Amino acid sequence: MDYLTVKDVSVAERHVLVRVDFNVPLSDDDSVADDSRIKAGLPTIEFLREQGAKLILVSHLGRPGGREVPDLSLRPVVDRLSELLGEDVSLLREITGREVRTRLADMEAGEVVFLENIRFHPGETENDPRLARQLAGLADIYVNDAFGTAHRAHASTHGVAEYLPGVIGLLMEEELRVLTGLREGLRSPYCAILGGAKISDKLTVCRRLLNKVDALMLGGGLANTFSLCLGYSVGNSLVEPEMIPEVRSIVAEANRKDVDLLMPLDVVVARNIAPSAESRVVDINDVDPNWSIVDIGPRTVARYREKLGEARTVFWNGPMGIFEIRDFADGTHQIARILAGLEDAETVIGGGESVEAVTNIGVSDEIDHISTAGGAALAFLAGEELPALGVLQRVERLRIPWVGGNWKMHTKMEDARELAGEISARWDRAEPEVVLFPPHTFVQQAAQEASGSPVAIGGQDCHWEDSGAYTGSVSAIMLRSAGARYTLVGHSECREYLGDYDERVRDKLQAAVDAGLSAVLCVGEQLTDRDRNLHRERVREQLQIAIGDRPDYPARKLIVAYEPVWAIGTGRPAGLQDVREMTSVIREELESLLGTATAERIRVVYGGSVKADNVGDFVDLPDVDGVLVGGASLRVKSFVGICEGIREHIVGSGDDG
Ligand code: ADP
Ligand code: MG
Question: I need a labelling partner for 411 at 20 to 30 A (CA). Which of 231, 237, 515, 635 fits?
Answer without folding.
Answer: 515
